[in-house]
Specification:
The protein has helices at residues 13-19, 36-45, 57-65, 77-80, 92-104, 124-138, 152-160, 176-179, 188-204, 216-225, 246-249, 267-284; strands at 49-53, 70-73, 110-114, 142-146, 165-170, 208-212, 230-233, 241-244. The protein is an alpha/beta fold and 295 residues long. The chain has an eight-stranded parallel beta barrel with strand order 1-2-3-4-5-6-7-8, surrounded by six helices. It binds 3-methyl-2-oxobutanoic acid.
């Protein structure tokens, strides 16, 4: 038995207006692969949409069947899938392999591959080389990279080269050694910088921007100011989209969760209980039984 919490609540009236349209990213009738043009159109309709991370084909196929329209092969795979302490050690080879698996496991969602630390900071040409790998070898429909004003040249060249870019500002975990894990954009000066970063990535051609760990009022202002969609994580309720790391959302990640995570299931307990039940069956001789045996 899965431990999913009670059936999802009906969406609020405003959200329903958007999601009952046949073009809606979630709940609509699109059966082909979603593209960045669909994302742009959703902002024009004022439609909210969900995004989840995914790091393997099987999990991605579950989310695809559930209708999640955008999946991010985040470099959070570092902590949530590969056993690193941070996202910093994640390599291009790892991101390419994980992204390819997620693309293979899905037929509808737009797959966004994350550019890992060290794969684009040298400049636009390095960014193009790395992004091209994710597009050609893994088959992703877009890439994501961190940084606002500091990454605008990289974004420009990728977009000019035909690679859609999702930007990521606010808390940027690849810079953990410089900024730590702290709320960003607090205070007038920091808020102005965040607004400049948001404008810079939009002007450079990004089709969407992740806002991580920023005050809700500031995220709402950025969302009103930009014509591209904002994707919030720890950024309050008024961004155009919301993203969660799937292992946090389903309760597989151990330990204390940040305040912004809502846990919809307790997979860590479900999997642990199942593993113990299997072990007890084997030790007690109740598995395999006749029905599991071939004669
Ligand atoms: O790597 C990741 O999963 C991310 C999300 C938290 C936005 O960047």
């Amino acid at each position: 038995m899965t431990q999913l919490s009670a059936a999802p609540k009906q969406p609020a009236e405003g959200a329903l207006k958007a999601t009952d349209s046949s073009k809606a990213l979630y709940g609509g009738k699109i059966t082909r692969r979603i593209t960045v043009r669909d994302i742009t159109a959703a902002k024009e309709r004022g439609e909210k949409w969900p995004m989840l991370t995914a790091y393997d084909a099987m999990t991605a196929s579950v989310f695809d069947e559930a209708g999640i329209p955008v999946m991010l092969v985040g470099d959070s795979a570092g902590n949530c899938h590969l056993g690193y302490e941070t996202t910093v050690p994640v390599t291009m080879d790892e991101m390419t392999m994980l992204s390819a698996a997620v693309v293979r496991g899905t037929s509808r969602a737009l797959i966004v591959g994350d550019l890992p630390f060290g794969s684009y900071q040298e400049g636009p040409v390095q960014a193009l080389r790395s992004a091209t790998r994710l597009v050609k070898e893994a088959g992703v429909g877009a890439v994501k990279l961190e940084g606002g004003e500091r990454s605008h040249r990289q974004i420009e060249l990728l977009v000019e080269s035909g690679i859609p870019v999702m930007a990521h500002i606010g808390l940027t975990p690849q810079s953990v050694n410089a900024m730590g894990y702290r709320v960003q954009g607090r205070g007038e000066e920091a808020a102005q910088q965040l607004l400049r970063d948001a404008k810079a990535v939009q002007d450079a051609g990004a089709f969407a921007v992740v806002l991580e760990l920023v005050p809700a009022e500031l995220a709402a202002e950025v969302t009103r100011t930009l014509h591209i969609p904002t994707v919030g994580i720890g950024a309050g309720p008024e961004t155009d989209a919301q993203v969660l790391v799937w292992t946090d959302m389903l309760g597989l990640t151990g330990g204390k969760m940040p305040k912004f995570v809502k846990q919809y299931a307790d997979l860590r307990r479900v999997m642990g209980d199942a593993a113990k039940a299997f072990a007890e069956d084997v030790v007690g001789g109740t598995f395999p039984l006749e029905e599991h045996s071939v004669r």
